[in-house]
Amino acid sequence: LTGAQDGSVRMFEWGHAQQITCFRSGGNSRVTRMRFNYQGNKFGIVDADGYISLYQTNWKCCPLTGSSPKPYLTWQCHNKTANDFVFISSSSLIATAGLSSDNRNICLWDTLVSPTNSLVHAFICHDSGATVLAYAPKHQLLISGGRKGFTCIIDLRQKQQQQLLQSHDSPVKAIAVDPTEEYFVTGSAE
What we know:
Blueprint: E1 2-3, E2 9-11, E3 21-24, E4 31-36, E5 42-47, E6 51-56, H1 61-65, E7 73-76, E8 81-88, E9 93-99, E10 104-110, E11 119-124, E12 130-136, E13 141-146, E14 150-155, E15 160-166, E16 172-177, E17 184-188
Antiparallel strand pairs: 1-2, 2-3, 4-5, 5-6, 6-7, 8-9, 9-10, 10-11, 12-13, 13-14, 14-15, 16-17
C-alpha cells in the first residue's frame, strides 16, 4: 500500500508489474500516514487536511465491477492537519494525532457511532501539534510525540495524561514500543 504527496493511495501485490487497485486518486490532500488494522482486513489513511478515511482491503471485488473502492468512513478529525493514527484494540476505536485550533491534538474516536458523536475523548497536549502515535495494548497506553520534541504518555483506561517528557529539541517523528512494553524509543527530525 502506498500513499503519495498528490493524495493518491495505491495497492500493489508481489508478482504484478502494475498496481492492483487505486483506492484514492491524485488531486487530493497529501497522505500523512497509512496503517492496517491488526487483522489486516482494514486500513486507514490520514491527510494534511485533517481527514481520516477507513477502507476495507477486499479489493478483489473492485476489478469485477470496474469501480474504484470507496472508504466506508471519512471524517475530519483535526481542523488543521492529521499526522498519524492508531487502531486501539478492536478496529472500531481509533486514536488520532494532529493539529487542531483548540489544541485537542490527540483524540480518541469510536467509529461505530455517527461522526457527530464519535469523539470519545480529546487530550489537550502538544500545543503546536502532535506528530506521531504508538499504542501499547498490554498497558493500555497511548504514546505521542509532538512538534516541540515532547513525548506524552496517556493512560487510556483513566483517559488521563500520565507523563510529559522532553525527548528531543526537534519534532518527534517516530515511536516504537518493544514487544514486552518495558521500553519505547523515539526518533526526531534531527
